[in-house]
Amino acid sequence: MKAIENKDILQSHILTTAKYDYSVHEKRILYRLVELAQCEIEGLDFRKDCRKIEHDLFGLIDITLPISSLLNGEEDKNHKVVKDALTRLSQKYFIYEVDDIWEKINIVVFPKIQKRSSTVSFTIHPKIWDCMLDFSKGFRKYELKTAMSFESVYSMRFYELLSGQTNPISYTIEYLKDRFQIVDKYKQINDFVKRVIEPAKKELDEKSPYTFEYKINKTGRKFTSITFFPIYQAQNRDEDLETKALQKQISPSWDLSKNVLDYLRNGFLFTPAEIKQNMDLFKKAQSEIQDFIYFMSQVKPRANRAKNPKGYLINSIKKELNKSC
After folding, report:
1. Which structural domains are found in the chain, ordered by start?
2. Which residues face 225 on adjacent strands?
3. Reduced DSSP (H G I as helix, E B as strand, rest coil) percent helix, strand, coil of the chain, to 5
4. pLDDT of 122-175, one tens digit each?
5. Whether 67 contacts 116, CB under 8 Å
6. Rounded distance between C-alpha atoms, residue 43 and residue 30, angstroms
7. Strands 61-66 and 169-172
8. N or C: which end of the chain has fewer CB within 10 A?
9. Radius of gyration (C-alpha) of the chain in whole angstroms
C-alpha cells in the first residue's frame, strides 16, 4: 500500500466551522472529498489512481476511491472501519449556517464497496460539493498527510481551526461544544479540558506544524471561554510543501466565486492565465457590481458580436465600475 501523498489542502471556512460529530474515519473520508474537490477545480486527472469524479444530469456527484486512500498507511488494513464509516455518514447530515441560511443535507448516499477491486463508491449532493468549493468566507490551509494521521477527531478539528493562524483566537466553551456536537457532554470544565483540549494539544505537539497554548477565561465566577495561542512548529512542516507553497501562485478559484469563475471560463472562454492577468479587475467587479454574473450575461450578446469578446467584457466592466466612482 502506498503511503499517503502529502499536499496542502485548502478547506472552506464554512466546512471548518460547521457543526458535526464524526469519527476519525468519517473525517478521513471528508478530507478526501475536500482533496478531490480541490483537485477537480485544478483539472487533475485521476484515472491512473482508480479515483473518479462523475457529475450526472441532476448535479449529483459520483465518487470512486481506492479503499486504501481512506486508511492511515500500511498498518491500517481494516476495511470494516471504512464500511462502518460510510454507513454512519449515509445516516448523518451536514449542518452549517452562513448569513441567513441554515441547511441540513445527507453527507453521502448509495455507498458501495467493490471487493475484488478494493474500491469504494458513493454519491454526493451538489450542495455538499459546492460547500467544499465555497471560499467566499475564507479558507484554512493544512497538510493532508498530517490531517489524515491524527487518531483523535478533536486533534483534526483544532488543526483545521488553528492551521496558518498567528494571532490568538478566543472561542466560548459553548461555541466549541456546539461545533463539535458535544453539548450534552463534559459538563465540568475540567472534564472538557481533560477529554477534548489536552488530547488534541498532545497530538498536535507531536505531529502538527501548528499547535497551541491556551488560557481559560472567566466571566464573573464562571469559566466561559478559551483563548488559544497558535504555535508554529517548523520541524513538523513538510519542507517540500513549504518550497512549493513559496513558488506556486494561488489559483484564481480562491479569489473568485465558483459561479463567477465558471462564467468567465465557459461563457467567455477565458484561460486561467487570462483570468490571473485581470484578477484585480474581476475581484473588484465581483465586489462592487451588484449581481456580477447577471451583468456579464447582459454584456454577452453584444460581446459575441465584437471582434474581441473578452476585450469587450473587460471594457464594459471598467465602464460600469467608473459609473460608481
Report:
1. 1-148 (1.10.10.10), 150-247 (1.10.10.10), 252-323 (no CATH)
2. 172, 217
3. 50, 20, 30
4. 999 888 888 777 766 777 788 888 999 999 999 999 999 999 888 999 999 999
5. no
6. 20
7. unpaired
8. C
9. 22
